[in-house]
């Protein structure tokens, strides 16, 4: 069931890109439709679909922030080179997982629901992914990046579980007995 839920998670965010606040819902809806069309297009090879889908998420997720949050306080103890290597390995892991789950697509529908401004620089977007048997609530957590004045996803809550917090717990446990270098290699 977890693989199915993760697939649904990615389907509901597939085609977002860095956004201005007032356009988050509208653009999300439009782009989700584009991605669903890519998945349904039988003229495209799997490699072509993968490349197109990765390009779509590249501009909406802030992988560096996600990597930083996933390590917690340990992040500040890393050298700049270790931070760079960890971020790159983490991004690769997230994208690989994303593409892997997309291959499970089975005509699920995505409904863009409520946008809620939690703080001046934090917004959540609720979506519903409707599968053949169940409906799942997925919440995307956006933050406003000062440098660009655009909104990026830094976490996703799927059925009440934070993806980044899950990684954070896994990484903390891993690092109780192993090194950061081993963690990077394991990603």
Tally of helical runs: 7
The helix-strand sequence is: HHHHHEEEEEHH
Evaluate the radius of gyration: 17 Å
Largest sheet: 5 strands, antiparallel
Provide the β-strand percentage band: 15-25%
The rounded distance between the terminal residues' Cα atoms is: 23 Å
**Broad shape:** globular
| Structural class label | alpha+beta
Q: Give the rounded overall mean pLDDT.
A: 86
Task: Name the poorly predicted regions.
Answer: none
List keywords for this structure.
5-stranded antiparallel β-sheet, 7 helices, alpha+beta, globular, 187 residues
Please provide a written account of the structure.
It is built from 7 helices and 5 strands, in the order αααααβββββαα. It is of the alpha+beta class. It has a 5-stranded antiparallel β-sheet with strand order 1-2-3-4-5. α1 crosses α5 (80-102), α4 packs across α5 (80-102) and α5 (80-102) runs parallel beside α7. The chain is globular. It starts with a helix and ends with a helix.
């Amino acid at each position: 069931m977890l693989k199915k839920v993760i697939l649904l998670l990615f389907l509901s965010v597939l085609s977002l890109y860095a956004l201005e606040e007032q356009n988050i819902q509208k653009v999300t809806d439009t782009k989700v439709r584009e991605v669903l069309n890519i998945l349904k297009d039988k003229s495209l090879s799997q490699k072509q679909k993968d490349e197109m889908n990765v390009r779509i998420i590249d501009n909406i997720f802030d992988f560096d922030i996600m990597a930083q949050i996933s390590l917690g306080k340990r992040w500040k103890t890393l050298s700049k080179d270790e931070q760079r290597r960890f971020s790159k390995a983490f991004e690769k892991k997230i994208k690989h997982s994303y593409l892997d789950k997309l291959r499970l697509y089975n005509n699920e529908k995505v409904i863009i629901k409520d946008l809620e401004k939690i703080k001046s620089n934090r917004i959540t977007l609720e979506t519903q992914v409707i599968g053949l048997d169940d409906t799942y609530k997925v919440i995307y957590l956006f933050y406003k990046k000062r440098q660009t004045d655009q909104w990026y996803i830094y976490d996703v809550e799927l059925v009440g579980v934070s993806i980044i917090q899950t990684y954070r717990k896994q990484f903390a446990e891993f690092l109780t007995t192993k090194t950061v270098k081993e963690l990077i290699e394991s990603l």
